[in-house]
Design goal:
There is one protein chain. The protein is built from 26 helices and 15 strands. It is α/β, with parallel strands linked by helices and 613 residues long. The strands form four sheets. The chain has a seven-stranded mixed beta sheet with strand order 8-9-10-7-11-12-14. A four-stranded antiparallel beta sheet has the order 4-3-5-6. A hairpin with a 4-residue loop joins strand 3 and strand 4. Helix 20 runs antiparallel to helix 21. The longest helix has 31 residues. The protein is globular, with a radius of gyration of 31 Å. The protein starts with a strand and ends with a helix.
């Protein structure tokens, strides 16, 4: 898709591509690319005819990544109060976005500053298990500029050979600046050009929440201090200040609702899990596993948090958001996954639902698929066709559009004529008279017919039917395999019960349903199927289809391990090493690692080597 204008992420000015300062391989400057060159994505130096390798903003002279010139820009702001954990959240969110293979997205940094910033924070959080230092107030940190591509393409994208991509820009300002937006507008200009906003709030800023927590958990979660350096500002004031700034910056009338989507993200949910037991927000996110955004899940999480806020007496906070934002949804996340060990030391990072807000944003921009939203598929196809009607595909798209219109017209004419023929055809109107056979003739004909030999039907065994289903399953013909699995599973055949659970869990040949998956895993596990026992343990560990319970997970891992499942033996070692549902015991961890390693599990071998055998 040809982009003829862009917004500089450094000075926030709208810039025409033909006004950019260009520099070629030989260092020549002063060239301006033409519109045709940018459409073809091949700008040449006017002095030496070599390719241009650098593009700079004519206003601030900052170098712009090439992707920002050829892809849509998704400018994305994260704001919040002091100590709400924005930097931690951004770091973990980006890392998890890289790892989410089911989403079929490729994330990559666009400049050295972005790579360095993310790398340093990753090392502090994931390797050193420490909290990164807070963002410096009063200084606008450089934006993080990321490229993100969609690896799976729809029909129109394949036809146009266009890769669906965004330049994904994140601004992370200090909480103190965002608490005084009206006083420091120059530091927050990026907000007015953002296509979506995340309002990140530490729930402990709410006095009712702070009072309900133990002092120990509160200190560990806040680093031993207050969650906000400004006691005169609360979350309601911040929402109102933010909305007022956006209105002024964008020229909206006073009191008008803001149309920019806002994800209201409560962080540090690990400290509140006891208050959300058996609620959707406490369960594992389904979006990453399924590869698309599930609006029904998001609505359940939003409802959980609204009800919780209402019980806490925080209806005024909800009303402030309703008064200012036309489109907002609550999310609950935990960057760490556990309450910190101390005010500075963390457990190993095990994020909880950190991708939900950004996937909501992607789904609203039709960048990833979604279900549970009215007309979403139609809108996605329409936007895909609009993308296809871009300048570089002008002639091709006109031809295809004309062909589609012609085919539609022919179909309409044929259908109309078929209706007329059916109504007026003399053949259809003439009754067919069948002569009645005489009784004697009918009797003779019946007696003359030779008797058919009896056919002996051999009923197939459950094993044979299961083998037939596995042929279809291995051929990825899941819709053919599922009915046979179900038939044999109903007969109590454990392997079929396990595979039926697997089909429900992965959405193979039927709608994804973790509750049904757990039901069939349990039936197979009760029959001693080790794979089902292992998967049931995973469901308990991730909270898929049931409440998260590491103790129950460990019980099922042990059953599978006792049946010789190498993966379960390895995970059981992890449980002992990291105190996940089992007491910390390095020697027992080693014992299970050895059993798993003896069966060839490479991860178990690595852990064993790191622990010294």
């Amino acid at each position: 898709m040809a982009i003829m204008n862009t917004i500089c992420p450094f000075c926030f000015n709208k810039v025409a591509l033909t006004d950019l300062d260009c520099e070629c391989l030989d260092g020549h400057t002063g060239t301006r690319g033409t519109a045709i060159e940018f459409i073809q994505q091949r700008v040449k130096c006017k002095s030496c005819n070599k390719d241009i390798i650098r593009f700079k903003c004519p206003r601030c002279n900052e170098e712009l990544p090439k992707s920002i010139l050829h892809t849509e820009n998704l400018l994305f702001s994260i704001i919040g109060v002091s100590a709400s954990g924005k930097t931690n959240y951004i770091t973990v969110m980006l890392e998890e976005l890289k790892r989410a293979s089911n989403l079929q997205l490729a994330l990559y940094s666009q400049n050295m500053n972005t790579r360095t910033h993310q790398g340093e924070n990753y090392k502090v959080l994931y390797e050193n298990h420490q909290k990164p230092p807070p963002t410096t107030p009063g200084v606008l940190t450089p934006p993080q500029i990321w490229g993100i591509k969609k690896l799976e393409q729809n029909f129109l994208q394949k036809l146009s050979k266009e890769v669906s991509a965004y330049t994904f820009i994140i601004y992370d300002g200090a909480g103190e600046d965002q608490e005084h937006i009206a006083d420091n507008p120059s530091l927050c200009n990026y907000i007015k050009i953002s296509k979506a906003i995340m309002v990140v709030i530490d729930p402990m800023i709410l006095q009712s929440v702070k009072n309900s927590l133990s002092r120990d958990i509160y200190n560990k979660s806040t680093g031993g201090g207050s969650v906000s350096g400004d006691n005169d500002k609360n979350s309601i004031d911040i929402v109102n200040d933010l909305a007022e700034f956006i209105r002024k910056a964008c020229g909206f009338r006073v009191g008008a609702q803001i149309k920019v989507p806002a994800a209201v993200v409560f962080t540090k949910m690990d400290a509140l899990m006891d208050e959300f037991k058996n609620r959707t927000v406490s369960m594992s996110s389904p979006h990453v596993h399924s590869g698309y955004f599930d609006y029904s899940d998001a609505r359940e999480v939003d409802r959980d948090i609204r009800e919780w806020l209402s019980v806490k007496g925080e209806d005024a906070f909800i009303n402030a958001l309703k008064a200012n934002f036309a489109d907002f949804t609550f999310f609950g996340v935990s960057s760490y996954g556990d309450v910190p060990v101390s005010t500075s030391e963390l457990n190993p990072i095990r994020p909880h639902r950190v991708l939900d807000p950004i996937l909501w944003l992607f789904a609203k921009n039709y960048f990833i698929g979604a279900n549970g939203m009215k007309f979403n598929k139609i809108s996605t196809v329409f936007r895909g066709f609009c993308r296809f009607l871009s300048p570089q595909h002008y002639i091709k798209s006109k031809v295809i559009l004309a062909a589609l219109i012609m085919v539609l017209a022919i179909v309409v004419i044929v259908v109309a004529n078929v209706g007329k023929i059916t109504a007026t055809s003399p053949i259809a109107a003439t009754p067919v008279v069948v002569p009645e056979a005489a009784p004697l003739e009918l009797e003779a004909a019946t007696s003359a017919a030779p008797a058919k030999p009896a056919v002996t039907v051999t009923k197939k065994t459950p094993q044979q039917r299961y083998d037939e289903a596995m042929v279809f399953y291995n051929q990825k013909r899941y819709t053919a395999a599922v009915p046979i699995f179900r038939e044999v599973a109903d007969q109590g055949y454990a392997p079929a019960q396990y595979y039926l659970g697997l089909c429900y869990a992965d959405g193979l040949g039927l709608a994804q349903d973790y509750g049904k998956a757990v039901e069939w895993y349990r039936k197979a596990a009760d029959h001693g199927n080790a794979l089902a026992q292992y998967n049931l343990g995973l469901c308990y560990a991730d909270g898929l289809g049931l409440a998260q319970d590491y103790g129950k997970a460990a019980e099922w891992y042990r059953k599978a391990a006792d049946h010789g499942n190498a993966d379960a033996q390895y995970i059981l070692g992890i449980c002992y090493e990291y105190d996940l549902g089992l007491p910390h015991d390095i020697e027992k961890a080693k014992e299970w690692y050895r059993k798993s390693a003896a069966q060839g599990n490479e991860e178990a071998k690595k852990r064993l080597a790191e622990l010294g055998g």
